[in-house]
Amino acid sequence: MFADRAKIYIRSGKGGDGHVSFRRELYVPNGGPDGGDGGRGGDVIFEVDEGQNTLGDYRHRRKYKAEDGQEGGKKRCHGADGKDVVLKVPEGTVIMDAESGKVIADMSGENKRQIVLRGGRGGKGNQHYATATMQVPKYAQPGQPAQELEVLLELKVIADVGLVGFPNVGKSTFLSRVTNAQPKIANYHFTTLSPNLGVVDTENGGFVIADIPGLIEGASEGVGLGHEFLRHIERTRVIIHIVDAASTEGRDPIDDIYKINKELEAYNPEIAARPQVIAANKIDCIYTEDGEESPIDKLKAEFEPKGIQVYPISAVSGQGVRELLFHVKELLDSCPQEPVVFEQEFFPEDMLIGENLPYTVEQSPEDPTIFVVEGPKIEKMLGYTNLDSEKGFAFFQKFLKEGGILEELEKAGIQEGDTVRMYGFDFDYYK
Q1: Candidates 2.70.210.12, 1.10.260.40, 2.60.40.1120, 3.40.50.1580; CATH matching 1-154
Q2: Residues comprising the binding site?
Q3: CATH 3.30.300.350 for domain 360-428
Q4: What pLDDT sits at residue 384?
């Protein structure tokens, strides 16, 4: 089965934690810190694979995780970086945040490879935190956390021209005549269950054409397979309406065009405003009585005053097809050349708020009501914060809360009235 939509869970690798260790050598009783840095977590990367034309690979496997970075080691050993995970998708795939529907990446045009989730940065080992006042730092930086996201993959076919029309009006027959595409053709409603692409070569140039599967009323609201197919028309620059001019199934071709335009308008008004041309198909099956107005004349009278040209054709015999293709190429030449590329609206890196602060929280062995907190950022913050002012003290409290230090103190069992000691400063703890 053709698959053009998939929802998957992706997760980058967590950064490895920095290591806490000290040199232990013979005749060096007080060796300095030598904890190594943690490794970087693996990225989640999407890459265009020219050999793929569906998202079928993602229908059976839904979770993809990059490898975590390894923890740093003794003797300044750096932890190994985690392996990336590379997900191959067909060109034209749009990656969106599943919850908000916002675009993260459009894998088309020049964009052949994009990192969607970056792995966490490795934490620094305690070797980086030795200072003149703190020569034996007992803390290291934790690795950055992994990023995780549920994403929606949608394949939006890349074609210059889209064929639209109700089922059984001859779109597949037309495509097989004008291109090298070989769609499966049968006399059933909703025959075509996947977009067929073909390249048209004319004397005045070539273009890519896509047979968008048959629309029905209510398609823009998801009736039938409407939404599954309407997304493929979003990139097209010109639309060919194919109608059954002979009404072989009793349909009114004028009514059909209005209904299809209504669906396009409801789905995306911008698409409905693109240049259109009408291919009045099955003219070899038209039989009119003397004095009766032909369906072609009715179509022309209805739509040509609105600037939409009508071309009578027979997809079976090829009659009128050449003239239609020339007109389509002229319309394309008059349209903007820039392909439709969906701009990024969602930035996964924004999910990483705040930094992991390296610090330790320890209960004093002499007095269990005293909790000693140490860390380079805390020492630095105390150095330039005026704790005597109400504003400065509130700022420092906010820093402790956002850095997770207050939460860590509570985990360590601190009670109201206990003392928090930081680099010569003592604070009473109250919630």
Answers
A1: 2.70.210.12
A2: 165-172, 190-194, 211-214, 281-284, 314-316
A3: yes
A4: 61
Q: Name which of 170, 202, 395 is nearest 281 in CA terms.
A: 170
Residue that has been written with the tokens 């985690």 in this structure: 82
Measured in whole angstroms, how far is the alpha carbon of residue 73 from the centre of its chain?
A: 37
Residues 398-423 have pLDDT tens digits of 878 877 788 888 888 888 888 888 87
Q: pLDDT value at position 39?
A: 92
Q: Hey, do 161-334 and 360-428 end up sharing a CATH topology, with the first three levels equal?
A: no
Buried-state track 304-342, b at ≥16 Cβ within 10 A, e below 16: eeeebbbbbbbbeeeebbeebbebbbbbbeeeeeeebbb
State the binding site for GTP.
165-172, 190-194, 211-214, 281-284, 314-316
Proportion of the chain above pLDDT 90, given as a percent:
15
User: Which CATH code, of 3.20.20.70, 3.40.50.300, 3.10.28.10, 3.30.70.580, is assigned to 161-334?
Assistant: 3.40.50.300
The answer to whether the CB of 251 falls within 8 A of the CB of 175 is: no
Alpha carbon separation from 382 to 128, 260, 396, 424 (Å, rounded) = 19, 68, 8, 10
Helix H or strand E segment including 425: strand 425-428
Quote the CA–CA distance of 16 and 18 in Å, as a whole number.
Answer: 7
Residue numbering of the annotated binding site for Mg(2+): 172, 192
Type and span of the H or E element at 175: helix 171-178
Instruction: State the residue for tokens 């977009």.
Output: 195
* Contacts (Cβ under 8 Å, ≥6 apart) of 394: none
Alpha-carbon span 235 to 158, nearest angstrom: 6
Angle at 151 between CA 148 and CA 152, to 5 degrees: 175
162 - beta bridge partners?
210, 239
Give the neighbor-by-neighbor strand order of the sheet with 5-11. 63-65, 5-11, 148-155, 93-97, 103-107
Domain definitions of the chain by residue range: 1-154, 161-334, 360-428
Low-confidence spans in the chain with pLDDT less than 50: 1-2, 183-192, 224-225, 353-354
Query: C-alpha 327: how far from its chain's center?
Result: 36
